[in-house]
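Shipment paperwork, digital attachment
Item: protein structure file
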Amino acid sequence: MTSPVEYEKRGKVGVITLNRPEARNAINGDVAAAFEAAIDKLEGDDEAWVGVLRANTSGQERPVFCAGADLKAINSGQAGSLNTERGGFAGFVYRERKKPVIAAVDGLATAGGCEIVLATDLVVASTRSAFGLAEVLRNLVAGAGGLFRLPQLIGKNAAMEVILTGQPLGSTCLRTGHGEPTRRASRRRERSNGACRTHLWCSTSRRLGVSQGGERFDV
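Attachment content:
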């Protein structure tokens, strides 16, 4: 049986893959438990220096890195299983760890999916990627760190627009600190003061890669 989160070692890099493309990589109890287990493997391997978090988007008409919480799981009374004691939501967003994790994003990271990205240490994103906190559109609250991490990254005013409207940001907006929603490019917003530990580079290619010792591998 295929694991909902896969862990693979490539040299000094531990590659973690969200592997639930048929459900837009939404987080349920199985994903949270497997995600936490993958972080345990990364942290416990002395030969792994850094983690790369990616998502399987095969078969998706519009790629989705992660759609956040699985609403079917929540509606069936399994909301508690989406959190772990050590990691919080998805077994990751509040996890204490010693090794950096890079998010390699190609597609939409929304709601809890965006909060997972914000909890990483570095983000590499393709130009077709978008990031948003869509909970308000479903009368929910973003409770996995996005409400404080996003303002730290792009500034209060831009973040409030994203939080209150549910509209996503393009990767370029997130990188530059200008919070112009992808569906309504409006006036420029204040730039980030650099207080957040998450940084984002926008890739001009849809193929994302990590270079290790002069050798590149696509993620």
